[in-house]
Amino acid sequence: DTLEARQFFKSWSGKVFQHKPKSILVISAHWDTEFPSVNTVLHNSTIHDFNGFPDPMYKLKYEAPGAIALAKRVRELLMGGGIKRVDEDTERGLDHGAWVPLMLMYPDADIPVCQLSVQSSQTGTYHYSMGKALAPLKEEGVLIIGSGSATHNLRKLDFSITNGSAVPWALEFDHWLRDSLLQGRYGDVNEWEEKAPNAKMAHPWPEHFYPLHVAMGAAGDDAKAEQIHTSWELGTLSYSSYSFSSSL
């Protein structure tokens, strides 16, 4: 209840994005596969893919309807965009990269949800290209959510920092990302490992960054980025969040 990010997500449908989508596509950092995969299920189960938390966490449920038609459309678009193999998972529900924010954003769980996996063995440019292939979805009533983290190095969490401040290396990366996005320097974001300060410190592994690239690509080359939230937890974990709007 004390996290600023929680209040941001809870305000989503009232203040941030007031149009109720027909369906939701979530690109989650917590589904990492060799080939792109979509989940094709009638009803989403709740995957508690984390350890060491209080028992009530494992009792939370978010059982939104599946979005099989959307999953098929995502597969069609990705393959049409040049990806030769896109798998369908007929059993997987929603991991916590999807259901945790959605539980706060759309608590009624009445909007069909489909997940798309990331490929950590690939690059930012690869995921941006995936997003470009998915661009038609934004005209089809689909809300595309990239769920990861602007910075994500759990080994560097500082439990002594409880006032919402950030350590210098994390803040520098976060500001670089903000400026790059707001100035439309998407090419730099695609090449973040070479262009960003403290890149490997901010993301020792890339899976929490790649959902951003998919969302960024899906908005189109002319998309305008807007920072819609920023807050910090434990000094190094940034909740910076962005929306992308196409001029078309």
UniProtKB/TrEMBL annotation:
Needed co-factor(s): Zn(2+)
Keyword Repeat annotated: no
Transmembrane segments: none
Keyword Metal-binding listed: yes
Gene3D superfamilies recorded: LigB-like
Keyword terms, alphabetized: Dioxygenase, Metal-binding, Oxidoreductase, Zinc
Ranges in a coiled coil: none
Similarity remark: Belongs to the DODA-type extradiol aromatic ring-opening dioxygenase family.
The protein's name in its UniProt record: Extradiol ring-cleavage dioxygenase class III enzyme subunit B domain-containing protein
Organism expressing this protein natively: Brassica cretica (Mustard)
